[in-house]
Each structure stands twice: as C-alpha cells, then as structure tokens.
Amino acid sequence: MIKKLSALILIFFIFVMALYFYQFIMMYLFEGIYHFFNIRNNDPLVMTSSNLVYNFITEILLLVLAIFLLKKFNYIKFIKMSFKSIIKAFIFMLLSLTFTKYILDIFKIYNIFLLFDFKNIIANWNKADYIVAISQMILFILVALSEEYLYRVTLYFKISEILNLKSNILKIVFSVILTNILFSIIHYPIRHYNISKLFEIFIIGIYFSYLFLRSGNIYLACMMHFYFDFPILTTINIGYYHYEEIILLIISIMLIESYYMVKHFYLRLYSRYEQT
User: Fold this and answer.
1) By C-alpha distance, which of 85, 87, 196, 204 is closest to 152?
2) Contact at 8 Å (CB) between 212 and 89?
3) FRET pair for 78, CA 20 to 30 Å: which of 97, 152, 209, 276?
4) Cα(251)–Cα(246) distance, integer angstroms
5) For 9-19, how does the pLDDT look when each residue is reduced to its tens digit (9 = 90+)?
6) What single DSSP character describes residue 231?
7) Is 74 in contact with 158 (CB distance < 8 Å)?
8) pLDDT tens digits, residue range 221-230?
9) Distance CA 163, CA 125 (A)
10) Cα→Cα distances 48→56, 95, 106, Å
11) What are phi and psi of 196, to 5 degrees?
C-alpha cells in the first residue's frame, strides 16, 4: 500500500513539475514574440492576453487528461453527465448565494457580493475589459472542470483504491485529506508561497470534496469552485472579503444537510404510510 501510494504521489509531483516547466517555457516564448514584433509587454492588456492564451492551453490539456483518466480508470461512472445534474447544481449555487447575500444584509456587514453587485462593478468598463472578463470567465469554467475532475474524482478514487483500510470511514477521511494536501501544494507557487493561503486552499478543497461526495454531483463542486475563483478577474479591482466565503460555505453545507434531513423524514413517513 505504501509503495503504491508513494509511486502515485511521485508521479503527481513529476506531473506538477512538468506543468510548471511548460508554463515557464510558454512565458519566455511570448516574451520572445513580443521582442521580435517590438510589442510592449508591460501593457496590462498585452500581459493579460498572453496569460490567458497559455492558461487556456494548459487548462484544455488538463481537461483532456482528466477525461482520459476518468475513462481509463472507469471513474466516469461517478460523474452524472446530464443536463438535470447541472441544473440542480446551478439552483443550489443560486440558493446558497441568495441566502448568503441576505445574511450579510441582515447583519449589515459591508460587502461587495460579486454576482449580485456585478452591475456596479462593470459600470466603468471599456470594450477591452469586457473581452478580458468574458475570456477569463470561460477560463475559470475550464479550471473548475479540470481541477474537480482530476482531484475530486480521479485522484480521490485512485488513493481510495490504494489505501488498504478496513474502516470505510477512515478510507474516505484519509483519501480526502491526502487529495487536498496535493490540491494545496499545486496552488502553493500561485499563492506566492504563503502558508496561510495554503491552509485556506486545503480547507476549501475539503469543502469541494464534501460537496461532491455528499451530493454525488461533481458539477456542484465545479460551480462553487468557479465562484470562489471569480474575484481573480483582473478587471475586478476590489478587496477580497473572506467572511463572505466562510458564510457561503456554512450556508451551503446547511442547505445540503437540511435537504437530506427532509428527504430522510419524508421517506420514513412514506414507508409508514405504505405499510398502513
């Protein structure tokens, strides 16, 4: 078990190093193109465009890899690829955001709640801002899909298969923890090697794992992942308030647990009614 797990983690780190090496090469490739055509690469729009191009290529490659691994290891069965599952995820996200917005308003907590106050944020945008924002939103959708498929499904179930534990609960717990340690590590350089940020990503990763494992709907995790990435838009120049994340996280968990409690009691009442 230890050997298999060590081999998997080693393969993961080789993959991460290859990914960062690829991005490093792409960065210098764009700098060479700018120098050749005498383009000012300190222009914010030029820098954003180049970042978007190689980020798009990276995420598309990761998504292709994720889908390939899902099929190879027969994990595709854990993904509900249906329009209904996407609609359920969208409704859940909308309810979570709505309740969070009202909680912030009730307690008079100052906030800029992105999806609700977006019209105020884009009031002074120009055409370039719109193009960059739309491109980045598409990129974040790719990021959410590729990372959730890789970590919450492929890596989680692979680790779960390797762990030879008698207790199913312990197997789930250790698989979630190991998966999200790796999920945090890959984001470590992006977060400027900040330990507190690393811990935040670890907690958020566990939350995404919870969403998928509790609901069986990977698009739930994908949509919440997309929302948590949303403030990274270079066109949105606002402070980032972590209490919004915390309240959203708590409310969404309460919504899921309330749903399953109501469903449980409804099924019990229904079974009693059938018996009578």
Assistant:
1) 204
2) no
3) 97
4) 9
5) 888 888 888 87
6) G
7) no
8) 999 999 888 7
9) 51
10) 12, 33, 38
11) -65, -35
